[in-house]
């Protein structure tokens, strides 16, 4: 009922997030090359060690400083990228069945309804090499084959993270082992080959390249999965000898921080820290072959005269932490290191060497690709196109959604060699809000522990403002309690939103459009309204998306703000 009502009320604003218009659009449809690394961070400064990414992408493109993944683990993040839907709408919430992995992707019906298929329907040739999903393996690669590709050459499990013994599977061919060859170099050759195939076909194309670097190396030793540091190409093995994980304020801190299992972690000893520094250097070294591949791609785009009509997008599935909050190398949490990730776009009319603070997420990427290619947006997209020209970016700076919803189900595990425990109860909902006046992260764990961080004063998230005994009682001049009421109500809408309600969540609460931001919502006239909302509250912790575990799913029927001058539109 609620949803139907909300959907009806939102009809009037369809079009607000419509197509981007390009002044200098050439007659020829543009191409897209999308490079997606695995587990690449922003906050451990990995991009500082990629001079060729700097040269071709950062210096010649636009960097989205506030880009987020919404579920910080490979398969759910990739499913969101390729469908334009939040994980609670794909219900691909894990890397393996029953809650995730390639079999779950197929079971959910997405093999006939995702980006490659839609792009082919729009007349594009679609190419892919590298990792598609977890649990896409040497046994199930053909049951069924992933749909939507003109040509593909997938990296398959269980060898996806085996840097020196990978297995690739091209089109309808059987998997082929690349024992003894360096995986990113194999991948680069395949990417160059697909690019030439695309050029030869003389049709607009979408080429996606998904290296496994800088993910941890995983070997299957007779059934035992062994994690180790990433493996660089031998030519890069001795680089960065003195480099260490950045010692930010939350690096292996003296006092524990966070909540739930994170708060109970012991401080790491020197042996552990030293090894984690080694793990970090191996990540940077493993990224060098990716950096070279980026150079190889740009060389070819240029020599084939494609550079002026091709968008190149660079991102990662999720972020990464090493030692932050005493955690072992890994992802899967709501901390900024795990969710704030690289996004760089270069292409026709995209500003050079530009950085924007617009809030964007992986949920927006499919809509962005549609928009760049002038394909009408799908109604069921949970995200909105990311503007790419400077003019379009500036136009959205004052009106774009200022938040990202974050969600996770399952456990968190370290990927180094120390403390290999799987931390259960790592299921949570969060909301990251960024504006000029405030910069906040709010999270509700399935244990019903709450966290709120003021990210401007505390970027390391060391002081939970909702913890007993915390002195501070206001944020941006408003009582914390009132701000939390608003954030909680927004999170309540977001955690089960679909399509339009995800794109315009404040409209579910204020159908008259009077509230578009947290700033608007904190006004005193809404105190009673927000004070009476149902709270985000978990029934219990579960490793998958089972609504029964997740407490109230929507704000109460009828709890929509209809105060001060609200009029139902004529067509209701
Ligand atoms: C990019 O911009 C920064 C300052 O914003 C400047 O220092 C740098 O030289 C610029 N780089 C290029 C290649 O233009
Ligand atoms: C590489 O993988 C193949 C299976 O594809 C396996 O038979 C072989 O033993 C592996 N080699 C090494 C060095 O692990
Ligand atoms: C690991 O190898 C064993 C056989 O040694 C196999 O039964 C198992 O399926 C493999 N695990 C994965 C995740 O592929
Ligand atoms: C350091 O910590 C690791 C991980 O807990 C442990 O295995 C190791 O024994 C410790 N080393 C020393 C010297 O205490
Ligand atoms: C998970 O959280 C529940 C409370 O929701 C608690 O009873 C249980 O002990 C926790 N389990 C672990 C492994 O921490
Ligand atoms: C998500 O998938 C799991 C596993 O198949 C299933 O148990 C659950 O009911 C699904 N959730 C929703 C909301 O459909």
From TrEMBL:
Write down the Pfam families for this protein, in alphabetical order.
Answer: Sulfatase
Q: Where is the signal peptide?
A: 1-18
What keywords appear on the UniProt entry? Glycoprotein, Hydrolase, Signal
Q: Where is the Sulfatase N-terminal domain?
A: 30-375
The reaction(s) catalysed by this protein are: an aryl sulfate + H2O = a phenol + sulfate + H(+)
InterPro entries xrefs: Alkaline_phosphatase_core_sf, Arylsulfatase, Sulfatase_CS, Sulfatase_N
Q: Which SUPFAM superfamilies does this chain map to?
A: Alkaline phosphatase-like (SSF53649)
What EC designation does it have? 3.1.6.1
* Hydrolase found in the keyword field: yes
Gene3D superfamilies given for it? Alkaline Phosphatase, subunit A
Bilayer-crossing regions: none
Which PANTHER family does this UniProt record tie to the protein? N-ACETYLGLUCOSAMINE-6-SULFATASE FAMILY MEMBER (PTHR43108), SD21168P (PTHR43108:SF8)
Query: Would you identify the family this protein belongs to, as annotated?
Result: Belongs to the sulfatase family.
The protein here is known as Arylsulfatase
